[in-house]
Amino acid sequence: MKVGNQLETAFSADMMNQVNEGAYITFEYAIDAIRSRISAKDVRGTVKDGIKLAEGVTWNFIEDPHLLIAGGTGGGKTVLMRSLLVGLLRIGRVEIFDPKEADFVKLADLEVLRDRVTWTTETMAQRIIDAHDRMRARYAIMRERSNEKNETELGAFYKYDLEPDFILIDEFPSWVTELENLPRDSKIDAFKVMGDLKQIFLKGRQAGVFVIISTQNVKTDDLPSTLKDNIMFRITVGRVSGYTYQSVFGEANENKAFKYVQKVHGKKVFGRGYVAINGLPAKEFFAPLLPNSKIFNFYDDFKQLPRIEDIKQPVVKEVRYLQNDLITELSTDERMFKKIKGLLKESGVNFTGKDYSKKEKSLFVEVFDRKNNEEGTLKEIIAEVMLDFG
């Protein structure tokens, strides 16, 4: 019914639900969202609960992975992203792409973001490939630790002591355009880069790798459907186009009367917009408020934060085999085992220690197998095995 949307406009409220109760309909509205606004210095979060952006508005990146921010020039988008960093840098690893070389470049001087702020097209592309590799490494670590716990199902990253890994891409469409227009002699394969990025969107949640994309107005071809369909949390701030509202918030909000508001209670406001989980009704949102610079500034806040280091590849301990165990497994005796070992030494095998590596075990297994099933002297058999093993 259109009356619900008309009431929404009349009372400057957000219709959050419509309940049909037989003889009448109940419309549920949210009002006065500005009262839920918090200061940028108070943005905090935890891995399991997410990042609090306002009273009643939390980005739970585990339940609703990936974030899209759309905002016109001067609408408060940069302040919102920096406010996000106040929370994200305290709980995880963050990488920032700044293709405009403007809003985040100076943060590269900070230890917490050293080597994690990039702005050239090819470097950003390589970092996507690196992020995909990190995601795969995380899955390897998770499987290893899951096996150590004798689990029957693989859990989420935080169960295995891994911190979340965030990739913030400012002005995403601009970067994609530059990526697609790289010269032919570039070492970067744009197709591979976008393929790796799609895999992060599809598989990143369980491994704890999350992407934050910002743009101005969303155009038809700005966001590939694979990416957009997997971005679960969406925000707009400032003045954006009608098509942007439609694209960001989808069919669930096709009848909503989105509006651009310049003043609230007679005062000019920045960072006002809408927020929604993909597929649910959007509601009015006020991004964290930038405090007085004498009280707080982002650079000084980030400067005192500890750096969260990259995960290290799991150390795989080499399996070694005792001689008596090999003798038993090969169904032989100590005399024959030592004879073959001596012939292998003569052929150039350098045995180290009293136990044997996996490759050395394979040599013995192959020699004994051929000895039992082929004709020829031991020396001839070992010569053939050495040729096969290189």
Automatic annotation (TrEMBL):
InterPro entries: AAA+_ATPase, FtsK/SpoIIIE/SftA, FtsK_dom, P-loop_NTPase
Classification via CDD domains: TrwB_TraG_TraD_VirD4
Binding sites annotated in the UniProt record for ATP: G71, G72, T73, G74, G75, G76, K77, T78
Entry keywords, A to Z: ATP-binding, Nucleotide-binding
GO MF annotation list: ATP binding; DNA binding
Nucleotide-binding in keyword set: yes
Pfam families (alphabetical): FtsK_SpoIIIE
Domain FtsK: 54-246
Keyword Manganese among UniProt keywords: no
Domain of life: Bacteria
PANTHER family in the record: FTSK DOMAIN-CONTAINING PROTEIN YDCQ, SPORULATION PROTEIN RELATED
Entry function: Essential cell division protein that coordinates cell division and chromosome segregation. The N-terminus is involved in assembly of the cell-division machinery. The C-terminus functions as a DNA motor that moves dsDNA in an ATP-dependent manner towards the difSL recombination site, which is located within the replication terminus region. Required for activation of the XerS recombinase, allowing activation of chromosome unlinking by recombination.
Protein name: FtsK/SpoIIIE family protein
Organism field: Lactococcus lactis subsp. lactis (Streptococcus lactis)
